[in-house]
Structure formats: structure tokens, C-alpha cells
Write a structure and sequence with these properties.
elongated; 1013 residues; alpha+beta
């Protein structure tokens, strides 16, 4: 359904399209296809509102454009498949639908409509609210005021995910064929490996899931409304459109509502818009078509927090029709992206399937041609296919990632999925939400200007230049601090442990904490100067004043507010302890300082005071006491940057990772913070405002995305657009955030990182990684761990492929030449178990390389085994195979085709593969290098233990019979030893030679040194 809603401007029209709600695919299709029409100049679609803005040739009218839209939507619908085929790679949760039988709620631009018309629309009034009968009808008609529930992964789904890889699937097929052909022991061994992999993955991921779920916050369950002319408290789910909400400080808004009456209301909307400073609200209607969410000053949205004032609001949307509900639908529409390691292992698995099929066919064909039995050749072919698949690959990858998760937990970093650790190591761009992630999402006093001095406030210290100033040694500063405590509505109490508990708006809390840091006893000060009267600020008066009783029966007036307005009311100032007139030059100085502090993105208040006679009558409507004030100074507040954030940005840049800040704040605020963080890697800091972002085509945004350092005034859908644009540009993207508004982007990014302590439940439930104590700097540890894990898994894969290929070469060559089978099926399985899992795992536990954080992230397109590696792998395998076949040839000459000959081949190949673990530790370092690699105790234990198991196989008769091997003498032992050591010496001696060595040396020489990225 298409409806034209704004058509007054010629050549410009806005349409409401029902199908557009929550459909990213339709949005992209319309923007891509319509812009190709020469009649249309510009197209912008919004999946949250269902609106489509079109700029077109003025010769055409909006009806003709609407016809074009209808055709485009019809074509899109026809081309859509009947079932959803998109693969959700990492479904960490799912959205549970609410009631489907309810009617759609009316959507309108309520912020543009006068309050009386809004009340008339819902047949309600501020005095009486809805009747109980009308409320019941609306509840039945529109459904409960609840959001779709987010379900965590079930235990069953976590288990199933452990089997969703091609290597595991191929092993399962091999086990099935083994059972079919009578090889029950072979099948049991294969399934044991698959089961071990699943158990490790399940235990690790389920533990993380439980810890993250335990962080869930308890939500407010009830709200106050007017019903039948009475104020009553009802469950939030029973709130309906038309209800009159009673707004009080300290409560969360229960549903989206239009303000109809208010007294100095301020609301913290950071969870929704990302705006860190509480927003002052008004009841007046707004003007303009495209008013951003953060600028709708007459609206109150579900889930936001009332920091001050009180008032009434009429509910205009509930449940999934609220802005929070739309964001949650957007979360459901966002598709998770496959991680680099998952892609690489799938690619290796696919290659192994093709290799295995080829080997099966080749060996089976050669055997049949030589007259061997069909069942015998089928078993041999299956054994070789199993040999081609490194049984240890899934277990090594899973165990290594699980150990990475365990290590992260020590740093209070909770990782939901195994692949997320590695994916963070390959991240090329990190998008960071400002409020609550880069900053602490709480206001703090950072600067004071008093008596012509600039005083910095940091960690409780008051600094003038390098000098630490004691407030009790400075009368002007101390009086400013006292006025900040008295002219303040925040409640202050002392807890049992002696610490202060402060409750109120973020701005006023910051003033109290400044006083506490200065050593002022806020409670005692208020008791000394009892409050007589409070005069709050109003729409046209940005000043608050309080009147207090003093010990000499005079009244003390404390004033704070807009610096310009407060300064206009001042006639004097304090200089060197004396009250002197405030002249025009000083007023100009105040104005200049105010502009300077505001330019640094500070929220600035002017502070003043006065005394009035004891016969003041205290009439609340009389503001005569707000005159002839004495100026004290300016106080600048900001949402402080988290400790370590600047150093973290520098660490990311050194690691070759681009950093992007995304915020709902205004451009000047965002610019000031980005400049302080040194967010830009180039000389010029690039910033893009959402008003410009909305006018860009998806292609243009993709082209611009990796050039922009800061995105300002950003909405939740914009965040998702930015992440997807960076991904379209070929970037591996991580997104950090803590608010509900971050959830869609957190899910869409390859790695979503949420805050555990201060974050919202929705953000945590869709994130891959949760920082339990909100310490952002632990992310660099995760990056280091991720890169090390990938490098080590790559070493393991190299080892597994070269050793398994040697088995294939030995078996295929022997079959082709006609010298029998050097190894039987059970020996091949035993060989893979002994040489694959523990030695391969020990390689995955190598220590991090010193330059791991001094190199740029790898390209996501780079395969885990590059083309340059295959030549080296083939060479190493050929050397091991040739040595084993030589030992087998010796045994054939001495013993003939007997179990003794098979034993020598079996022991030779096993020993050579175990020693090849040493050669696989590094691409460049060898045992002959002067610079030695750090000791790896896990590798030493793996090699020693595996040799011990191999000796036991010969020493213990039941095992010897199972493997069909025989005891060996000293001469045979010497042959086996020589055939194992020779490949190690050859492979180590040839490192750094040939094409592979040239490529490796070139890669290392091009790696940036510390500080060069």
C-alpha cells in the first residue's frame, strides 16, 4: 500500500509504504532501481518509518511518481522467493512474535500536531484520562504494551551448531560407510573425535551464554496513569494508546507519548538516541517535516529515563509501534555476517571433500583394475578419504578458540561464540558508539572559570596550570562550590560505608560530586542553610534559584543557569575577596569564556548569589530576588572520556585498525571528543552529519564510509547503514555499543561488543562479546588473542595437510606400483589420531609473536592456506612419503609383504609426522637458525606423549593385535629412526629457499614496524 503524505513542494514528495517497514531488501531495491529512472533525481527510504522521500523532475506530478513506485514494488514482490533462504550464520537469538490478531495502531507525526488535537484523536483528557471501559477496548484492540521477547540460544541449538561444518560432516559420512562395510571400530574412533569436538564447543559456549544472561537487568514493571479521573498505578503491559501518563523523576517512560503538560521536565534519551546530555522537554508543537528523533522536544519515548521535573503525556504508541519496538524489529531484520575463520574452514572443508572424492575414485579404480576385491577396495578407499580429512582440524580449531575464551574471561571479557575471538583478530574497522562506550555516560565538572582564572577539574583535583589548588584556601572557588550544592535538586545521603549516594539529574549530580571531591560535606551544608523556596527554570527562563535561611536570619539566594541570562542579572563580582562592580569589559570576558568553553563541547552554567532582607515574603511568583546578583563564575561539564580510551585508540591505529566514532550528539560535540582522542589516522578529521547521510545513495555511502572518522546525529537505522556500508566496502567490522539503539548494528557487524555493567539487555543479547566491567581497553587484548589464534591455527592446518597428504602419497604410490598396502584402515585412523590432535593442538598453543600488534590486519579474502603455501606443503609431504616408502621398500626386501613390513612403514610414517611438528612451528625459523623460537612446553609434551603412546601400541599385545603390527628389532628401529629424522633435516634445511621462501621473506619485510602504522 502506497500513500502520498507530503506533496506541497513541486518536484518533491514523501510516501508512506506499508511494505517498507523493516524491509532492508526493499529499501535497497527501491533506492537502487528508482535512481536509474532519468525522471528521478534522488531517493531515500526509511525502514523504521516506512517513509520514502523522492526528488524528481518538476514537470512530473506526485501521482505519476506514485505509479512508478507501485510498479517497482510489484516487480520486487514477484522476484522475492516464497520462503526465506538467507543463511543466518550466527543466530545468537530470535525474536518471538507477539499477538498477531491485534489491529495496527495509527502512526502520525505527533510532534507536529497541537496537544488539543492529539487529545481529541484519542478521546481523552488530562483531567480524567481514559475510562476503564475505553482502556479495556483499546487493550483488546491494539494488544499489550510489550516488546517482542528476545530468546537466548537453547542448549539444543548450541549442540547442533557444533556439527555444522564440512569436515565434521565428511567424518560423519565416513563413519556411516565404515559401519555399512563392517568397520565398527573404525566408525567408533571417527565418531569419538566428532563427539569430543562437540563437547568442547558446547561446554565453552553454554557457559558464556549463562554468564551473559545473568547480567540481565530487572526492568520497571508498573507506571502511573490517569484513569476515570484518578491517578492509579498499573502494570506497564496494560498501558494503552490514549492513556495519560503521570511523569515523575526517577521513572522510565512506559510508552511513546506526546507531552501535554510539563514543569521543567528533562529526560535521558541516551539509550535511544545516543545523546549523552538529558533533553529538556516542552509541550509546544514543532515545525518541519524531517525532525530527527533527538530533536522532538515534545515527545517522550518508551524506555527513556526522567531525570527531572514532572508532567503529563498522552500515549500515542505502545508495544512494537514504539520507537524501541521499531528498533527491535530492525534487530530481527539485520543479518549476522559469517566470520573470516568460519569462511576459511568451510573453504578448506570444501577442498577436502573434492580431494577425498577424487582419491576414493582413483584408488578404487586402480584396485579393481589390479583384480582386488570390491569390498576390500571400498574399505581402502574410505580409509584414504578419512586420511585426507584431518580429524584433528575441527577439534584443534574448537579447542584453541575455547582456550581463547577462557583466557578472555580472566580479563572479564565474555565471549558468546568461539568464532568471535578469531573474528576480532581480523577486524579492519572498529565502529565505536560514543555515549557509554568511549565516554562514561555521566556528566562531570571538568572546568571552572572564576576570578579570571581557568581551573581544570580532574580526578578530584582543582588545577591552575600545574598548581594544585585547595578550594578551602580560595574563598571565591569555595563559595561557587557551595552555591552549586545549595541551588540543586539532587538528593544526597550517606551510606553505611560512609560513601555518598546521589540521586538526581546528571547535571546536578555532577555539581554535587564536584563538591564532594573538594571536601565539602553536602549534607551538613544544606542543614546549615535550610531551603525555604525553589524557583525552577521554565520555557522562557533558563535560570534556577533557591532561597535559604542563614544563621543571622537573613536570606541567602543561590542562582545557576544560562551564563548569558545569569550575567545579565549580576551587578557585581568578587575580586580578591572584595565585592566590586561588574563592568562591561568583565561582561564581555564572561561571554568570551562562555563561548570558548561551549566550543569545547562543554555544558556551561553560570553561578551567582545574593543576600536579601529578612522581611522577604517568599512569594513564589515574585522573582525580584533574582536581581543585583554577585557573579561567581562559569562551570563547564562534559560526559568524560573513559580512562584509557585515548591510549586504546593509539593501540588500534598501531595495529592497523581504523577507528570510527558514531554518536547521536551534535557535530561540534562529536568533533571535540574525536579531536581529544586523536581518532583520525590522517591529518584531517572527517565528520559526517546525519542530515548529509540521509541524502546519500547506498553506493555513495559505501564509497565515503572508509574516509569518515566521525558520524554525528546518528539514528539507530543510520548505525546499521554505516556498518553495512563498511562491509560493502570489503571491511571486517566490529561495533561497540551499550544502548538499545546500538542493537541492530551490533548484530550486523562481524563482531558486536556490548557493555556488561552499564549496557542494556537488548545490546548484550545480540552481541558476540560482552565487556563485563565496561573496560574498553580489554578489546586490544582480544585483538591480540584473535590474531595469535588465527596464526596458530594456520600453522596447525599447514601441519595437518602436509602430514595427511604424505599418507595419501604413500598409499596411492604403493597401490599404483603394486607393492601392496603399507598401512591398513585401522592403522590410518590410529596414525591420524596420534599425530593429528595433540601435536596439532600444541602448535595452536604457540606464544604470540612479538610483532602481532604491529602488523596490519589480514585481508578477509586471504585464504588460510595461500597458493604460495601449497608448493611447500607438497614438498614437505613428498619428503616424508619418500622416506617412508624407502623404509617400506627395505622391509619388503627383508620380510616380504608381511605384517612386519607394514609395521616398519607404520612406525616410520608416524615418527616422521611427529617430528614434522617441530618443522611446522615457523615459516622462517629453523632448528639451524641463530635466533631460536621461545620454548613451547605443550609441544614438547605432545611429541613425548605421542611417542610414548606409539611405543605402548607395540608393547601391549591387545593394541598390537588391533593394529595388526609386530615387535621390531634394533636394526628395524634404526631404519625407522633414520626415516623419521631425515625428513626433519631436509625440510628444516630448505626453509627460506624457493618461491615459498621468497614470498614469506617479502611478506615479513613489508610488515610495518611499531609506530609505522
Amino acid at each position: 500500500m502506497i500513500k502520498a503524505i507530503h506533496t506541497q513542494v513541486k518536484g518533491r514528495a514523501r510516501y508512506k509504504i506499508t511494505e517498507l517497514y523493516g524491509s532492508i531488501e526493499l529499501k535497497e531495491y527501491l533506492e537502487r532501481s528508482l535512481i536509474k529512472n532519468p525522471v528521478i533525481w534522488q531517493v531515500h527510504a526509511n525502514t523504521l518509518t516506512g517513509n520514502l522521500l523522492v526528488n524528481f523532475t518538476p514537470q512530473y506530478n506526485y501521482q505519476q511518481i506514485q505509479a512508478l513506485l507501485a510498479k517497482a514494488i510489484l516487480k520486487f514482490t514477484k522476484n522475492q522467493p516464497s520462503t526465506q533462504t538467507a543463511k543466518l550464520i550466527k543466530p545468537t537469538h530470535k525474536i518471538t512474535k507477539t499477538h498477531s490478531s491485534v489491529e495496527e495502531q495509527r502512526t502520525d507525526n505527533w510532534h507536529l500536531i497541537p496537544t488539543d488535537k492529539v487529545l481529541h484523536t484519542f478521546q481523552t483528557s488530562p483531567e480524567s484520562g481514559l475510562s476503564s471501559q475505553a482502556a479495556a477496548i483499546n487493550l483488546s484492540k491494539y494488544g499489550a504494551n510489550v516488546l517482542a521477547e528476545t530468546e537466548l540460544r537453547s542448549n539444543l541449538s548450541i549442540i547442533i551448531e557444533q556439527f555444522q561444518s564440512l569436515p565434521v560432516a565428511l567424518l560423519g559420512v565416513a563413519a556411516g560407510v565404515s559401519i555399512f562395510t563392517g568397520g565398527l571400530i573404525d566408525a567408533a574412533v571417527i565418531l569419538g573425535v566428532v563427539g569430543l569436538n562437540a563437547v568442547i564447543g558446547y561446554v565453552t559456549e553454554s557457559q558464556s551464554e549463562k554468564i551473559i544472561h545473568s547480567l540481565k537487568h530487572h526492568q520497571q514493571t508498573s507506571a502511573w496513569v490517569m484513569r476515570d479521573g484518578k491517578s492509579i498505578e498499573i502494570p506497564i503491559e496494560n498501558i494503552v494508546v490514549g492513556d495519560i501518563l503521570i511523569l515523575k523523576p526517577g521513572n522510565y517512560i512506559a510508552a511513546d507519548a506526546r507531552l501535554i503538560a510539563g514543569d521543567d521536565i528533562s529526560i535521558d534519551e541516551s539509550a535511544l538516541t545516543g545523546e549523552s546530555i538529558p533533553v529538556s522537554k516542552t509541550t509546544a508543537s514543532l515545525m518541519g517535516e524531517d525532525v530527527p528523533l533527538g530533536d522532538r522536544f515534545n515527545m517522550a519515548y518508551k524506555g527513556t529515563y526522567i531525570t527531572g521535573g514532572q508532567g503529563l503525556a498522552v500515549v500515542v504508541a505502545t508495544g512494537t509501534y514504539t520507537e524501541m519496538g521499531k528498533i527491535q524489529q530492525l534487530v530481527g531484520a539485520a543479518k549476522a555476517t559469517e566470520t573470516p575463520l568460519a569462511k576459511q574452514l568451510d573453504a578448506v572443508g570444501g577442498q577436502l571433500v573434492l580431494i577425498s572424492m577424487g582419491i576414493c575414485g582413483l584408488v578404487f579404480g586402480m584396485g579393481v583394475m589390479r583384480g582386488y576385491g570390491l569390498v576390500q577396495m571400498l574399505k581402502s578407499s574410505i580409509s584414504l578419504a578419512v586420511a585426507a580429512v584431518p580429524e584433528g582440524l575441527p577439534t584443534i580449531a574448537t579447542t584453541t578458540l575455547a582456550l581463547g575464551i577462557r583466557d578472555m574471561r580472566k580479563h572479564k571479557v565474555l565471549v558468546r561464540s568461539l568464532a568471535a575471538v578469531e573474528a576480532l583478530g581480523s577486524v579492519q574497522t572498529i565502529c565505536m558508539d560514543k555515549t557509554g562506550t568511549i565516554t562514561e555516560n555521566k556528566m562531570s565538572v571538568v572546568e571552572i572559570h572564576a576570578n579570571t582564572r581557568e581551573i581544570k577539574v580532574s580526578d578530584g583535583d582543582f588545577l591552575v596550570g600545574e598548581e594544585n589548588l585547595n578550594p578551602y584556601a580560595d574563598d571565591e572557588l569555595l563559595k561557587l562550590i557551595h552555591v552549586s550544592v545549595l541551588c540543586n535538586e539532587s538528593e544526597v545521603s550517606r551510606q553505611a560505608d560512609g560513601e555518598y549516594a546521589v540521586t538526581g539529574s546528571a547535571t546536578e549530580n555532577a555539581l554535587i560530586y564536584m563538591a564532594i571531591a573538594a571536601g565539602v560535606d553536602a549534607i551538613a551544608l544544606r542543614e546549615k542553610y535550610p531551603l525555604l523556596q525553589t524557583n525552577l527554570r521554565s520555557e522562557n527562563r533558563n535560570i534556577m534559584s533557591t532561597i535559604h535561611q542563614t544563621h543571622n536570619q537573613n536570606k541567602f539566594v543561590a542562582v545557576k543557569g544560562s551564563p548569558t541570562e545569569v550575567a545579565q542579572l549580576c551587578q557585581c563580582r568578587i575580586e580578591n575577596g572584595q565585592v566590586v562592580p561588574l563592568d562591561d569589559e568583565q561582561r564581555q570576558t564572561i561571554e568570551i569564556e562562555n563561548d570558548r568553553m561551549a566550543g569545547k563541547a562543554l555544558r556551561v552554567l553560570g553561578i551567582a548569589y545574593s543576600h536579601i532582607d529578612e522581611d522577604y515574603n517568599g512569594n513564589g511568583n515574585n522573582h525580584n530576588h533574582e536581581s543585583d546578583l554577585i557573579w561567581l563564575g562559569l562551570v563547564g561539564m562534559a560526559d568524560p572520556i573513559r580512562k584509557g580510551a585515548k591510549a586504546l585508540i593509539a593501540d588500534f591505529h598501531q595495529a592497523g585498525i581504523d577507528t570510527v566514532m558514531i554518536t547521536g550528539d551534535q557535530s561540534p560535540t562529536a568533533y571535540a571528543i574525536a579531536k581529544e582522542l586523536e581518532l583520525n589516522r590522517d591529518t584531517q578529521l572527517e565528520i559526517l552529519d546525519s542530515t548529509n547521510l540521509n541524502n546519500l545513495t547506498p553506493e555513495a555511502l559505501t564509497a565515503l564510509s572508509d574516509k569518515v572518522d566521525v558520524f554525528a546525529r546518528i539514528s539507530p537505522s543510520n548505525k546499521l547503514q554505516i556498518v553495512q556500508a563498511l562491509q560493502s566496502a570489503g571491511k571486517v567490522v566490529a561495533m561497540t555499543g551499550d544502548g538499545i539503539n546500538d542493537a541492530p548494528a551490533l548484530k550486523a557487524a562481524q563482531v558486536g561488543v556490548a557493555m556488561g555493567k552499564g549496557g542494556t539487555d537488548v545490546a548484550r543479547e545480540v552481541a558476540d562479546i560482552v565487556l563485563e566491567d565496561d573496560r574498553l581497553e580489554t578489546m586490544i587484548i582480544a585483538v591480540s588473542r584473535g590474531r595469535t589464534i588465527y596464526n596458530n591455527i594456520r600453522k596447525s592446518v599447514h601441519f595437518l595437510l602436509s602430514t595427511n597428504l604424505s599418507e595419501i602419497m604413500v598409499m596411492t604410490t604403493a597401490t599404483a606400483v603394486g607393492i601392496g598396502e603399507p598401512l591398513n584402515a585401522i592403522q590410518l585412523l590410529w596414525l591420524n589420531l596420534v599425530t593429528d590432535i595433540f601435536p596439532g593442538l600444541s602448535l595452536a598453543l604457540e606464544a604470540p609473536e612479538p610483532e602481532v600488534l604491529s602488523q596490519p590486519p589480514r585481508s578477509p579474502a586471504e585464504p588460510i592456506i595461500k597458493n604460495s603455501d601449497f608448493g611447500r606443503i607438497a614438498f614437505e609431504s613428498a619428503v616424508i612419503s619418500a622416506s617412508t616408502l624407502a623404509a617400506y621398500g627395505y622391509s619388503l626386501l627383508r620380510y616380504g609383504m608381511t605384517p612386519q613390513a607394514s609395521t616398519i612403514a607404520f612406525m616410520s610414517l608416524t615418527s616422521a609426522q611427529l617430528l614434522h611438528t617441530i618443522s611446522s612451528r615457523s615459516e622462517t625459523h629453523s632448528i639451524f637458525s641463530q635466533e631460536k623460537l621461545p620454548n613451547n612446553p605443550y609441544l614438547n609434551a605432545a611429541i613425548t606423549g605421542s611417542f610414548a603412546i606409539q611405543v605402548l601400541a607395540i608393547a601391549i599385545p591387545p593394541l598390537r593385535n588391533l593394529l595388526r603390527i609386530t615387535p621390531i628389532n634394533l636394526v628395524d628401529g634404526a631404519v625407522i629412526g633414520a626415516s623419521a629424522v631425515l625428513p626433519l633435516l631436509v625440510n628444516e634445511g630448505t626453509k627460506g629457499t624457493g618461491d615459498w621462501g621468497l614470498v614469506t621473506r617479502k611478506k615479513l619485510s613489508q610488515s610495518p614496524k611499531v609506530g609505522e602504522v
